[in-house]
Structure formats: structure tokens, C-alpha cells
Amino acid sequence: MKLSLNQQHKNILAKKHWIFDMDGTLTIGVHDFDMMRSELGLASGSDILGTVQAMPQEQAAPMWEKINALESYFASLAKPMPGAYELLDHLQKKGANLGILTRNVMPAAIQTLAICNLDGFFTSQDILDRASCEPKPDPAGIQLLLAQWGAKTSDSVMVGDYLFDLEAGRAAAVSTVHIDTSAQYPWPQMTDWGINHLNQLIDS
Known about the structure:
The protein has 8 helices and 6 strands, in the order αβααααβαβαβαββ.
């Protein structure tokens, strides 16, 4: 049963430009980041991408190869988040622009979307990976997609499951939706709407 919506929620549902994180948002999160850090020899709790980006190129190159291989492995395990197909289908039929902003590498992103049968909702230029722009929490990816669409920030939404998604949305001045299947919502100051199931974004 759906909860009653306040005006802020209704305003978000009416927006025309939707940007989604992928892992943990449109797909069930399967990445084991602790295992990845262990494989890469990185400190517990460290930002994997940020740490490797800060390394000298000769040190970073083999690390990126390992990261890409790990991401391909996790992509092979991908499953769609409940309600993902239905939500994207609903938004597409309403004429909304749909984009992906992921910190993954592009081949893993394409593989994940295909395995989950979600690839048909996104054009290639509307899928941005970590090489397309500065990765989240930088707002560059959101700004790039909005520029491609000729979209206003006031008519746009960022949907994600992690702080970096919400911080990027805030910095880009778009509405932020936090999907948290545990319904804990630990970053309320960054969140315009906390949901625990994607079907909450389907306005009937």
C-alpha cells in the first residue's frame, strides 16, 4: 500500500529529467567493497576511486586493471532492483529523460544493464561512467546530462542509494531521492525524499 504523498513528493514525481545511480539503486547492490579494498591492498573504509586516482600513473595503472576486472565480475552477478523495470517503463512512457551516472567503468555498466534487462531505457550518450566526467560526489555528471537534455535543475531528479549520489544532487541543485531498502535514511540533510522501494516513484 502506498503512503500518502506530501506536496514535495508530488512535485518530484512531476519532474521530467531523471538521473539514476546504478548499483544499489536500479540493481541490487552486490559489490563487496571490503573485498575490493583487500584485493587492492587499500585501507579499510577508504574511497577506492579517490585513493587510486591520487596515485602516480605507474602505480595506478595495474590497480585500475584489477578494479575493472572486479567490476566485470560483480556485473556478472547483477540483478534488477524490485520495481526498476516498472519505474523506468513508467517514466519513459511519460516522456521523461532517463540517465545513468555511475562510478563504474563503462563496460561494466553496459554489462550490468543488459543482464538486468534495463539497457533499453538508456541511450549510450545518457550513460556516464567515471571516465565520462569527475565521479560523484562531484556534480559534473549531472550537469553534463542536464546540458545534453537542455534541462532545468528545477525539473530534474537524482536517485541513488549512497551519500555520494545525494551530495552530487545537492551540489547540482536538483531534487534528491534516497532509496534505502532498510528505511534508515542516514543522510536526511541531503535527502528530499527517502524511499524503500522504487514503486513509490510511480505516480498513479
